[in-house]
4,5-DOPA dioxygenase extradiol (Luteimonas terrae), 265 residues
Amino acid sequence: MTRMPALYISHGSPMTALAPGLVGARLADLARALPRPRAIVIASAHWLARAPLVGGAAVPETIHDFGGFPQALFDIRYPAPGDTALSARVAGLLQAAGLAPQLDPQRGLDHGVWVPLRLLYPDADIPVVPVSIQPGLGPAHQFQLGHALAPLRDEGVLVIGSGSITHNLHDWRSYDDARQAPYVQPFIEWVEQRLAAEDVEALLDYRKQAPFAERAHPTDEHLLPLYVAMGAAGTPMRAQRIDAGIDMGFLAMDIYRFDGEPSKA
């Protein structure tokens, strides 16, 4: 079976579903370049829990976890099937890694899942299993979680972390396409350089080492899925940055593809 890469996707605002812009084009190009996965396991910045949860719904609902947007956004459905056998496999891998997961048989697909997947695979015909992140446990925990999922890549499963390279909603309406937040480009460049150098230690310590870390991420949850993808990538990670622009002057829309050799479980 063809080995799948691991991905980190910056999913942007929910409005990306209606106005996909450059990230839509980049994801469409990426879908054409990738082998077709038999299934997708995705960790979203919008499913937070104290311990790992694994979606186990056979038919996951589309969750509209936002407010104040046009009705057209609430009308969107992403009717991808679940895969209960894969959900059990994911839970088993996390259990073997000592992460004490639980299955959530009711969990649907939040916008951190369906917005980017709708741009990657608009037919919604690939099974999707969501996984929560644990914001209280920091980057190293998410890296361990991704590492536990790495064997799935040799089983035809695409492992994705969905978040945003920069995410400071306090800056909404403070910047725009003509005036970019001053911290965005330095943070983008630092992440790209550290990934190219395979400097996992620095990336795990980004709060202390990255420029403007607190402004780029007042809270961690939108960067934590990057560590899931990194953990699934193996060594070397072989990270490839795909520039998808900067939305509203403060949301960096970078995508990363990792083609490293995953560890065996």
